[in-house]
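Shift notes (night). Ran Probable endonuclease 4 while the centrifuge was going.
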Amino acid sequence: MIRSTDLPHTNVSQPPQRLFGAHLSIAGGHERAVEAAADRNMTTVQIFTKSTQQWVGKPLRPSSIAAFRRAVATHGIERPVAHASYLINLGSPDPDIRARSIDALACEVERCDALGIEDLVFHPGAHLGDGERVGLERVAQGVWEVLQRTQDCRVRLDLETTAGQGTCLGGPLAHLEAILQQCDARDPGDGSIRDRLAVCCDTCHLYAFGYDLVDPWGYHALMEELATRIGLERVRVWHLNDSARECGSRVDRHAGIGRGRLGLEPFRRLVNEPAFLATPLILETPKGTEAGEDLDLIHLRTLRGLLGMTTPILPPTPASTDGGSSPSPKPKRGYRRAGSLPPSQSRPNLKLDFDPDPDPKFNVTVSSFEPRALSEATDVECHQ
Ligand SMILES: [Zn+2]
Ligand SMILES: [Zn+2]
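Came back to this:
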């Protein structure tokens, strides 16, 4: 069991547990998000520590900090996660924005530290026309400065994968790898930088950028690339979101689990990955109710239903239906180019309750980003 033994929702007869949670609102107090998570039988939670529209939030009151910490302990919430403000752009060409971003991120690290939150997810930023190499260097410099300024904090910065929209960095894993490498190189040898910098993977963003998680080999190739470039142990948080838009679209539009282009199969694989048994798996899916039931609850039930499921939900692709004579055909390296899959293979063999886009453009090649170029990502421009 992942959870401690004296928790209100613990049931020893349950199937294997994972750290399932969702991004929840702190309206009414930070502890409210924890209470809402517990009400939904979640084992972890993600919050903003302040309004996302502000660079610097008003200071946390000791009573708020105490209430949050007490709620986390009472409800057995593990590894709560924070998400940083979207205003932050460490890659900005504007030195003022960059300085404000560094201040704001450092401030968020301190808030997390006060609240006892050890993972702060943030988006790498956008180069806004200055190119990927320059942008990535700026981000790495900014990350390093934030880590330097918050040396006393027990908070990790988790770079999130992005859909690569516009000039946003973080679409290819090679971007994150470049930032990690540049920061790791400045670790004084005691892990004070290296151990405080990790990665958050978002299934919707990965897919929208062009990693085809639906295809079994695409999924395998992603895991291989993650292991090679980042290290699976350095993936500290997963955002589990289905994607309303097609692979390679570079459009970040989240959908409920099993209700978008990803379907259930990538989630079945992910929730059963031994490497992520104790990794927070966070929903950032559209909120609301359906037939009076909370959508987060519905998605969590779906995800829990996939635990221990060993049978693929997708029919096997032709490449793997050779009667088992070649049990380990060589998976493709890198991700699929957008539009490379016919709809029948790209979509789950499931009845979805709605079609997020009645006019899929699977045959349009959106991305011309080549996996070969990833190793020299610092010289590669985003294709828009
Ligand atoms: Zn996310
Ligand atoms: Zn997103």
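Residues 160, 202, 239, 284 surround zinc ion (ligand 1) (CB under 6 Å). The chain has one domain: 20-315+330-379.
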